[in-house]
Amino acid sequence: RGAxxxxxxxxxxxxxxxxxxxxxxxxxxxxCTYLREDLNGLGFAIAINRxxxxxxxxxxxxxxxx
Length: 66
Prior knowledge:
The protein has 66 residues and is of the alpha+beta class. Helices cover 18% and strands 33% of the residues. The chain has one helix spanning 48-59; strands at 5-8, 20-22, 28-36, 42-47. A four-stranded antiparallel β-sheet has the order 1-4-3-2. Strand 2 and strand 3 form a beta hairpin.
């Protein structure tokens, strides 16, 4: 299934939670969700594969599985 969360040092502010995390090629690889200011700005994003899986589960009328 792959990673659920990605750790990143990409700069993002609290106000962009839910925004895309992009790789160097401009591809969406995650959705920014959480910033740890006490860890020198370490941020976390939900991996795009998990977002895609959850979207398909919802569209198919199923609940989201962990």
